[in-house]
Amino acid sequence: MGQTQISTGNEGQVTIYCIDTDGDSHGGGQEMERESKNQKEKKTEKGGATRSRRRRSEERSEERSESSRDGRKDRRRGGKEGRRRGRQGKEEEIKKDRKNNKNEKAKKQLESNTNHSKSSSSSSSSEEEEEGEKEKVGDEEFVVGSLSPEELERLKEAVDERKKLITTLRGKPWPMRKKLPTLRESQLFVEKYEGALGKGRGRKLYAYKVMMRKKWMKFERDLENFKTACIPWEMKIKEIESHFGSSVASYFIFLRWMYGINMILFSLTFGLVMVPEALMGRPYGSIPRKTVPREEQASAMDFAVLWDWGGYAKYSVLFYGYYNNQRAVGWLKFRMPLSYFLVGVGTVAYSYMVVIRTMARNAKEDGGGDDTSFNFSWKIFTSWDYLIGNPETADNKFASITTSFKEAIVEEQESRKDDNIHLTRFLRVLANFLVLCCLAGSGYLIYFVVRRSQKFALEGLDNYGWWERNEVNMVMSLLGMFCPMLFDVISALENYHPRIALQWQLGRIFALFLGNLYTFIIALMDQINLKRAEEEIVKFNMTAWQANLYNGTIPENSTAPPITVDPADVPRGPCWETMVGQEFVRLIISDTMTTYITLLIGDFLRAVLVRFLNHCWCWDLEYGFPSYSEFDVSGNVLGLIFNQGMIWMGAFYAPCLPALNLLRLHVSMYLQCWAVMCCNVPQERVFKASGSNNFYMAMLLVILFLSTLPAIYTIVSIPPSFDCGPFSGKSRMFDVIQETLESDFPAWFGKVFSYASNPGLVLPFLLLMVLAIYYLHSTSKTYKHANLELKKKLQAQSEENKKKNKLAAQKAANDLEQAKIMAAAEQQEKEEKQTNNNASRRGEERVIAIAF
Fold it and tell me: For the TMC domain, which residue ranges apply (predicted)?
């Protein structure tokens, strides 16, 4: 049986190979001769094939170099003929490569068919491997199994070019429909041919290393994306920043930071105070402090009572008075009083550490001011991200760039503004006088309401309604809602930069809230004194009650069992600590409800009215009154700060406060994000917020310090209640530390602690800390000033270099203009000489013609 193979040569010749594969009927000698002859032919064909392959590769390289040289020459001439010849040369080169590859394939098939009688399976597998190794990308073909040194060099250059294209593709001004296919093709090309650049056995190892490196890079990129996705509310804040600017976004970033702090505070109080008492402490109804009194049990589950945090809510783990003074509770022997005291101190210490650390990190990232050199040029040419493929992300990016341009325009306008300085000073003094009047009136109103509430408390709150019982909290909430609006109207007189105006507004609202808060604390101190006086009366009455209970009922030497009394019938003291905790919880709840009602009425209903009644109203509601509301950054920031201050102040007496504040912040994030995007409009003058955001942190540090002072005063100076709380029976709350040192530690440790806590050592240590802080602050200011001076010098040097370059360019332009003028003059002289010569030549010719 015969097989016929047809191959085409380089010059269009057709070669027919006829192969006979029926040789099994011949003798052994003929088979030996045939085998030896086939081996010789195979060797000669292999040698000839390799020599012909090398010769063809050299011819192709010479032809390419000649065609490229011809093309470059033609392109230098600038004619169409050069470009046409270059295209023809490339097309001829591609055709020749294809013909040579076809010829090589035909010869390989011929070699495999001659060995078919011996090893048909091995030859077929080798054909499949050779065909599998051949790959084609774009217009280039490479046979990976057999590459000459020139082809390897060319492949290496192609891989390097594709890698460079992948790295620089982002900056190319191409449309996405062109970028994405180019990127995919380049990545496929690099993946297929990068491993072929190895040598021998190292080729597979190299390919494996490349593959593992790419997978590791992909893993790192996915990990970074996962970290970004795990940041709470990151996409919501980015969307708000793109539409409303960085000043509004700074509030939500601050709210998220406060949420993280309260998460830690909640974990400490819930895990180390509330849960141990609920699981290991005595159950409800076992002792008087954990039982609702008999006269209150009828209304203990009423909604009005529970809303006022009385009844069963008062006698629960939510408040200080429920906790027992038993030194160790449960089978774990958990030190409940010690844990309660250390958690209260630890939450404050952790808050100080986090706030100061955040301020230090922000100051380090500040860098000495913004660089506004070529601000608009940078924004125009470098703002867009060419890797954005999502339409929604593209819209947010477009809005963000627009907002950043508005911020930059405001900054430029404020830097060039020139106003009447005397009129500006007069208006600012007038504005500050009006603000002081508002603060004084607010303080007097709170003082009046507090004195009135004390009168109601002496007469009995049961005789009054809901408003009289909650008058102090409601007045403070209403002042906190309306006074910032009045301050905002007054600040329009001052004509400050929007960022400076925001800081003044924050400072004024801070002073308002601080005065209200300390007025409230003074009122609480008066109520604490009244409760302590009532406690002394209760102590005397309890002594008389016990004497009456046992008088005459049991003989002196009787062995009868003692009289059991229901805990609900035992008289008890007023427990001023629980009263303080209830007041702070009520204040937090009333402030939260006021904020949410204001948000729904002042923003949502206002936006609905403007939206649906604008087309049928007498004037334009969107641009006139009432219009859409703007987001009040200053009021919301100060509301967050003072709510947190009340949490720090009252968490010692109401362990439920961190949980309530955590719930409030969680709801506020979603509700205010919705209100901003649906009901508010961007400010008329969008301004850039401070990069470090340290102004918020400075106010938070101040309110932290001022809120811990009353708590420290009550812990150190006022004796705890005698029948409620974990410190009952002690003269001071901090005595639990001394008791623990004496009972659970060696005697020498107690002596060391007493020496270390001696005021003679503590005061010098505090003085040294203050001096160190002052020195470090002065050093940082010096460094910052030096950095600013260096920056100014660099800017002056750059301006000087610009001037020099401009002068050099002008000089070069003048020289070029003079050279052009001189060349034109010389050309004109040459033309004049030529015309004169032509005229003289024509005259001579006329003379000769006349002479002839």
Answer: 575-690
Residues 6+ apart with CB under 8 A from 447: 519
Map 446-506 to HEC letters: HHHHHHHHHHHHHHCHHHCCHHHHCHHHHHHHHHHHHHHHHHHHHHHHCCCCHHHHHHHHH
Residue 61: burial class (beta carbons within 10 Å; 0-12, 13-18, 19+): middle
pLDDT for 317-351, tens place per residue?
999 989 988 888 888 889 999 999 999 999 999 99
Take residue 608 and report the two structure tokens written for it: 């609905």
What average pLDDT does the chain have? 75
Q: How far apart are CA 215 and CA 222, in angstroms?
A: 10
**Among 369, 281, 271, which Cα is nearest to 331's?**
281
Asked whether the beta carbons of 319 and 653 are under 8 A apart, the reply is yes
Between strands 2-8 and 14-20, the pairing is antiparallel
Token pair listed for 307: 């809303």
Write out pLDDT tens, residues 586-614: 888 988 888 888 888 888 888 888 888 88
Q: How many CB atoms lie within 10 A of CB 165?
A: 16
Instruction: Look at residue 54 in the predicted model and tell me its pLDDT.
Output: 57
| Neighbouring residues of 798: CB distance < 8 A, sequence distance ≥ 6 | 373
Regarding predicted confidence, which is higher, 391 or 637? 637
Residue 439: CB partners within 8 Å, gap ≥ 6? 508, 511, 512, 515
Helix (H) or strand (E) holding 6: strand 2-8
Which residues on adjacent β-strands are paired with residue 630? 681
Q: Which of helix, strand or coil describes residue 180?
A: helix
What are the boundaries of each domain within the chain?
A: 149-229, 234-385+399-419+495-547+573-684+691-749, 792-851
Torsion (CA) 373, 377, 379, 380 in degrees, nearest 10:
180
The 3 state secondary structure assigned to 565-605 is CCHHHCCCCCCHHHHHHHHHHHHHHHHHHHHHHHHHHHHHH
Residue 632: left if φ>0, alpha if ψ -120 to 50, beta else—which one? beta
Helix axes 498-550, 246-269, angle to 10 degrees: 20
Q: For the segment 532-587, what is each residue's pLDDT rounded down to a tens digit?
A: 888 888 887 777 776 676 654 444 545 545 567 777 888 888 888 998 999 899 88
Please provide residue 174's backbone torsions phi and psi, each rounded to the nearest 5 degrees.
Answer: -105, 155
User: Do 787 and 368 contact (CB within 8 A), yes or no?
Assistant: yes
Q: Which of 60-64, 496-500, 554-558 has the lowest mean pLDDT?
A: 554-558
pLDDT at position 654 is 92
Residue 239: pLDDT over 70 = yes
pTM (whole model) above 0.85:
no
Q: Spell out the SS3 assignment of 594-655.
A: HHHHHHHHHHHHHHHHHHHHHHHCCCCCCCCCCCCEECCHHHHHHHHHHHHHHHHHHCCCCC
What is the Cα–Cα distance from 774 to 767, expressed in whole angstroms?
11
Q: Show the tokens assigned to 343.
A: 């958690």
Parallel, antiparallel, or unpaired for β 2-8 and 680-681?
Answer: unpaired
Tokens of 659: 């949980």
